[in-house]
Design goal:
Strand content: 5-15%
Number of domains: 1
Strand order of the largest sheet: 2-3-1-4-5
Number of strands: 5
Order of helices and strands: EHEHHEHHEHHEH
Largest sheet: 5 strands, parallel
Number of helices: 8
Structural class: alpha/beta
Shape: globular
Radius of gyration: 16 Å
CATH class: Alpha Beta
Length: about 230
């Protein structure tokens, strides 16, 4: 595949949706065809699953059910939107992907990292991003941002311990996979964050080269390390 796959990750209120749109405009200014999408969602079937996943009480689903739901949505999303776009040579920017699953359902809720990676292997045929930008900020600040916009949902309603584990999970992923992941401080204003995101992505533009195939495998991580699931917007 000749396209590039970029994901934006982070906890609630980190600004992923805003920065995805800004990054897309920057790349289009470089003459690159860009597809923006999100998880859960991005395809008709995945959006139908999203409605089940993000709405309702925090305990609506068990963690195993969450993992199965998000991977069902991802399978449809990858098959119908992401992989075809990459094969056309388009660049894809996705608001959340597998790292959210590893962070939310894994680190946050205790499912084994190995089990979640096995599900990802089935759902996405081991499609991994070329670059993941982690928008990081204290979880309390992120939750306040999300709630101030009226964006509170199932995951915002989880307790603070959960959100602390999710943030730690994201940071651990970035530490384990420095070749793929870049951490951006998202406590600043949107313009400053945009500049930092672009600094990370600009290097990918300079090294742009076609892929030989669709397999992108991450480095090995410690066996059994817990990581987790997706939450939705920002």
């Amino acid at each position: 595949m000749s396209g590039k796959f970029i994901t934006l990750e982070g906890g609630e209120g980190a600004g992923k949706s805003t920065q995805a749109l800004r990054l897309a405009e920057r790349l289009r200014g470089q003459g690159i065809t860009v597809v923006t999408t999100r998880e859960p969602g991005g395809s008709e079937g995945a959006e139908a699953v999203r409605a089940l996943f993000v709405d309702g009480a925090p305990d609506r689903w068990s963690v195993a059910a969450e993992a199965c739901l998000i991977n069902a949505a991802r399978a449809d999303h990858v098959e119908r939107l992401i992989r075809p776009a990459l094969e056309r040579g388009d660049w894809v920017i996705c608001d959340r992907f597998v790292d959210s699953t590893l962070a939310y359902q894994g680190a946050g809720k205790g499912l084994a990292d190995s089990a979640l990676r096995s599900l990802h292997h089935i759902a996405a045929a081991d499609l991994w991003p070329d670059l993941t930008v982690l928008l990081d900020l204290p979880f309390a600040e992120g939750l306040e941002r999300a709630r101030s916009r009226g964006g509170a949902g199932r995951f915002e309603a989880h307790d603070t311990g959960f959100h602390g584990r999710v943030r730690a999970g994201f940071l651990q992923i970035a530490a384990d996979e420095p070749a793929r992941c870049r951490i951006v401080d998202s406590t600043g204003d949107a313009d400053a964050v945009e500049a930092a995101v672009w600094a990370a992505v600009e290097l990918l533009c300079q090294s742009h080269a076609p892929h030989d195939d669709g397999y992108r495998a991450p480095p090995e991580t410690p066996a059994g390390r817990g990581m987790h699931v997706d939450t939705g917007d920002d």
